[in-house]
Amino acid sequence: MAPTFDLIGLVVTDMAASLSFYRRLGLDIPPSADTEPHVEVTLPGGLRLAWDTTATVRSFDPSWSPASGGPRMGLAFRCDGPEEVDRLYAGLVEAGYEGHLPPWDAFWGQRYATVHDPDGNGVDLFAALPTG
């Protein structure tokens, strides 16, 4: 039997700040989770997304340190349309999150933008461009 891809884990420096960001992207995370050392949600389709504080990770891996030179992975959220990409990006930047790539029409046929979560991870917002 082959392994089953089941969870994406993020290590965060401030749980409440990180969860606030992902709530703005539509994830249903209860407010009580803000003070927890480990939080996870099950996404449509069954894949889980989890957050662990740096202290939690160091509790079982004392030599853990964050990657240097920038993040090496990113998350992408599909939006209902190009207007939603623009609206979400503007709302996140207005809320104080770092905009990395403002919305643009990508040559591969999508409206695309990238914003950084509180820990500097790139989060892409995208939607198909109208055809015809």
From TrEMBL:
What the entry lists under Pfam families is as follows: Glyoxalase
Give the highest taxon in the source lineage. Bacteria
InterPro entries for the chain = Glyas_Bleomycin-R_OHBP_Dase, Glyas_Fos-R_dOase_dom, VOC_core
Q: SUPFAM superfamilies from the entry?
A: Glyoxalase/Bleomycin resistance protein/Dihydroxybiphenyl dioxygenase
Coiled coil start-end: none
Domain named VOC is located at: 4-128
Q: Which PANTHER family match?
A: BLR0126 PROTEIN (PTHR36503:SF3), BLR2520 PROTEIN (PTHR36503)
Question: What is the name of the protein in this document?
Answer: Glyoxalase
Which organism is this entry from?
Answer: Microbispora catharanthi
